[in-house]
Amino acid sequence: MSNINHVLLTGGVGSRLWPLSRKSKPKQYLEIFSENSLFELAVKRNLQFCNKLFVVGNKGNRHLSEASLKKTGVADYMDIVEATPRNTAPAIAFASFAAQSEDILLVTPADHIIQECPEYTIAIQKAIALAQKDNIVTFGIQPTKPETGFGYIEYKDETVLSFREKPNEETAKDFLKQGNFLWNSGMFCFKAGVFLEELKKYNPKVYESSLAAWQKSEEGHLEEESSLQIPAISIDYAVMEKSDKIKVVPSNFEWSDMGSFEAVYDYLKEKGHPVDDNGNMQIGSASPVFFTGLIDSILITTADALLVLQKESSQKVKELYQELEKNQPELIE
């Protein structure tokens, strides 16, 4: 019987959560959501389904992953260390090369919040069953609002009709009205060999260059020269939008990619974090904070930076991050 391996992708930088999330400690390693980081929660959540853990991340984050795994008590795992970020398709290819062809990979990001519940277990079991039949499975989340920060999946039953980019608000409202669109969760399930076959078929350059880099790796550690030859591309563009083997599991579990301060606000508010009468919240300040003339605002305080924003403008933080990356890079390190 084939193994089921949890492939945990840890390479995100969390730019929309600056100044909390930095290159030196991205959001998946922060402990602002509970006594566990998002990384640790993802490891624990999937232990029951999988025989082995593969951690795929970059060399700059490896010590953070090691510390988190030590905290969770997980000692038996495969460490795949990228020399340079090349996005999700090559990262998943490395894990696939490390596995047996018939092994099923459950691929999850390390920076999502998911409520452990029967619905999650049901979704994982459905995905594994579909993967055993040589399908490439994605998880779609039932949308609860017209979210413009997520991609969408148009579907019928388990068949994917189309993938849609992040929409504007009017289009997102139309998706909800139609009723056959799901949020794209960024979670996948498939046999290692099936994924590699489809990657080779639809993106041979990515496949060949990833394989060449993997063959030069030592104990899961990639080297930089060959890694730089790999095109940086997501699994969505490389495989999901092209393959005819795609299936979707419509899922009802509570999910958030914690991809914006609006998502953080909603989560913390639900957990009892203080919010004033006008919906204002402060995060990170040990001093009393008062808001006057502001509604639904968030103040984020760190040792070297303050950020004030309207909750509904949370997606614009990425633009600020990109500006700092050019002009004040020391503030994002």
Structure description:
The chain is of the alpha/beta class. It has two domains: 4-256, Spore Coat Polysaccharide Biosynthesis Protein SpsA, Chain A, CATH 3.90.550.10; 261-331, no CATH class. Helix content is 33%, strand content 23%. The protein has helices spanning 38-46, 62-72, 88-98, 118-131, 169-178, 192-202, 204-215, 224-227, 235-240, 261-270, 317-327; strands spanning 4-9, 52-58, 77-82, 104-109, 113-114, 136-141, 152-156, 159-164, 181-191, 246-251, 255-256, 281-283, 297-301, 306-310. Strands 1, 2, 3, 4, 6, 7, 8, 9 and 10 form a nine-stranded mixed beta sheet that branches. Strands 12-13-14 form a three-stranded mixed beta sheet, with no helix packed on it. Strand 2 (52-58), helix 2 (62-72) and strand 3 (77-82) form a beta-alpha-beta unit. The termini are far apart. The model has no long low-confidence stretch (mean pLDDT 93).
Salient structural properties:
11 helices; 333 residues; globular; 2 domains; Spore Coat Polysaccharide Biosynthesis Protein SpsA, Chain A; three-stranded mixed β-sheet
Short synopsis of the structure:
The chain has 333 residues and is an alpha/beta fold.
* Anisotropy-based shape: globular
* Structural classification: alpha/beta
Tally of helical runs: 11
Sketch the topology as an H/E string, one letter per element: EHEHEHEEHEEEHEHHHHEEHEEEH
Could you state the CATH homologous superfamily of the largest domain? Spore Coat Polysaccharide Biosynthesis Protein SpsA, Chain A
Mean residue pLDDT: 93
Helix content: 25-40%
DSSP strand content: 15-25%
Radius of gyration, whole Å = 20 Å
Mind describing the biggest β-sheet?
A: 9 strands, mixed
